[in-house]
Write a structure and sequence with these properties.
Blueprint (H helix, E strand, L loop, with lengths): L8 E3 L7 H12 L4 E4 L4 E4 L5 H11 L8 E3 L3 H4 L8 H10 L4 E6 L6 H4 L4 E5 L4 H9 L4 E5 L11 H7 L6 E4 L10 E4 L6 E4 L5 H5 L5
Parallel strand pairs: 1-8, 2-8, 4-6, 5-9
Antiparallel strand pairs: 2-3, 3-7, 4-7, 5-6, 9-10
Helix pairs in contact: 1-6
Length: 216
């Protein structure tokens, strides 16, 4: 049996990444590969969320339970509507206050999204990152990208490209190593699909900060 290829590590300047590195990352996503990239919280794993085979690879690499949905990164509100059927008024208020930033909104999902993405919930988690490298990626890649922490399920999220490579010495098509990220807690996750918003995970943004914008 052929040995699995080692994960390719590309060192990049987080503030001024080379066009070649970003184009390589975009090419990986276009071809159904798995990309590791930094965000303003932890390193994430990205695939094309519309490709079932790419999602299968992602779940297999992480050992992620099937019943756990996967959130996506988008460039802006316009791209958000490609995966979200509706953006309620309170979600728009949170977008205005906190995005781009460490906030994930759980919204009603567009019909027809892969079941792996939504885990059959009819909902989709969506985030806009303000990390310069992610912003550079979206200038060359015009589609949503999955965002799930770069670690095997149950392990601590990777804070550096080296930690990502240690977790996944093989299996990733590209690791954009932009040095350390803050780590610690991840994005705050707020479900706005029901009659009353629900904080599913309190992360970088506190409950008090969210409550100053919408009623909880």
């Amino acid at each position: 049996m052929e040995r699995e290829q080692r994960s390719l590590v590309l060192p990049v300047d987080p503030l001024n990444p080379s066009v070649e590195a970003i184009e390589k990352a975009a090419q990986v996503l276009r071809q159904g590969g798995v990309l590791a990239y930094p965000t303003e919280t932890v390193y994430g794993l990205g695939v094309d969320p519309f490709r079932e085979e790419a999602l299968e690879r992602l779940f297999h690499l992480k050992g992620r339970p099937r019943e756990m949905p996967v959130s996506v990164l988008v460039r802006d509100e316009g791209m958000m509507r490609e995966v979200a059927r509706e953006i309620p008024p309170r979600a728009l208020a949170l977008i205005k206050a906190f995005l781009p930033g460490p906030l994930t909104l759980v919204l009603p999902a567009q019909p027809g999204l892969p079941a792996r993405l939504t885990a059959g919930t009819g909902k989709i988690g969506v985030r806009i990152s303000h990390h310069p490298l992610v912003e550079s990626l979206f200038r060359l890649y015009s589609f949503p990208v999955t965002t799930t922490s770069a670690n095997p399920s149950g392990r601590a999220a990777a804070r550096t490209g080296a930690e990502v490579a240690a977790y996944f010495p093989v299996g990733l098509d590209c690791i954009l190593d932009a040095g350390p990220v803050p780590g610690g807690v991840g994005s705050t996750v707020v479900d706005v699909t029901g009659d009353r918003p629900e904080i599913l995970r309190e992360g970088v943004l506190s409950r008090e900060e969210i409550g100053r914008v919408i009623s909880l």
